[in-house]
Known about the structure:
single chain, alpha/beta, Rossmann fold, 5-stranded parallel beta sheet, 12 helices, binds zinc ion
Amino acid sequence: MPRLLFFGETMTTATDITVIYIVGPSRSGSTLIEDYIARRFGGVACGELYRISQFAKGDARIIKEDGAEETCACGAPVSECAFWCAVAEEAGLDLVQSSFRSRLSRRQRVFFRLFVRLLGARLTNRMGKLVPAFERELEVGENCLRIYRAISRVANVSLIVDSSKQAHQYYILKAVAPKKMRLINLLRDGRSVVASMTKRARGEVLARKIMAGTGRSPAPEDVAEKAFRAWMLSTLNGLVAFAFTSRGRRAMLRYEEFFDDPKNEMSRIEHSFSLTKKNYAQESHAIGGSPSRYTVGFEDLRADASWKERTPPQKTSVVTVSAHLLNRALGYRGVDRSEKN
Ligand SMILES: [Zn+2]
C-alpha cells in the first residue's frame, strides 16, 4: 500500500527531530504563536498533544470556549482526520487507548519534577525501573515522542511545535528526550489573562468549577480570583521550568511583544534555537487551542488590549495581591487608560 504523503514530496526517515514545547498560562496566544512558528520554520504545529485521547474519543466535555469544536483544526473529527490516522498508524499507537498525559497524583508529580530538575533525565529513567508510578509517567513521555517522530515522518518535517502549555508535561518529555526538547516560556500580563478567562463561556466554566467545590454560585470576584490563581501558578511553573533548562534550549516570549512585532520576536527564537527559516503553507491539524485559530489571519495578528476597558471585579485577597506583585515583578505596570490601541 502506498504511504500517505501530506506535505513533502518524499518520505524521510527523519529521526533528528526538534520539539518546541510552549509553557505558560492559558489565554496567552499560544495557538497563534505555535502556528506562526511552525509556518516560519517549516514545522508542524500539533496543538495540545496531551489532550489527543479526549479529542480522538470526540468527548464534548473537552470544549472550554465559545465557538470551539471537538475536531482537529482541519475540521474533521480526529478519529477521521487522515493526518492523525496516518500518524497513529506510523506510531503504532491507538490514540484513545494510549496515555499522553500524566497519571500521577499531585504529590507524586512534585517528586517527579524534583527528580528531573535535580538528577536529570538519565537518573530519572533509572528510577523509573524501580518505581512503577515513575515508569508509567515515562511511558507517557515515550508515547508523545513516538507521536512526534511519526508526525515528522508523515509530514516530512523535523520540527514539531506543541502548545500543551503544561509545565509538568514538559518535565516528562525532558526526561525521555532531553536533547530534542526546546522550551518557550510564554508570559502575558496577568490582568489581561484574567479578563480573558472570566468573560462569557470561559467565565461560566470557571464559575461551574467553583460551584462544584463549594455548592453555591460564586460572585464575579471569586471567579476572577480563581483565574488569577491559575495564571499565577502556570506563570510560576513556567519560570521554574525555564530556570532549569539550559541555554540554547530555552527562550522567553512575551505575548505583548510577539503581537507587537512578530518578525522581531521570531528572529530571537530563530537565534536562540539555531533554527532555519523555511516558509511552509500547510493545512493545520492542531489539537485544541483557542477557537480564534479558525478566524484570525496572520495579517491581523494584534495583541488583544481590550481588557483595559473591562477589568473584572477584584477582591483584596492573598491570591490577588500576590498575583499583582508577580505581575509587577514581570514588568507589567499600571494601565494607561489614555493609551490608544
Ligand atoms: Zn486534521
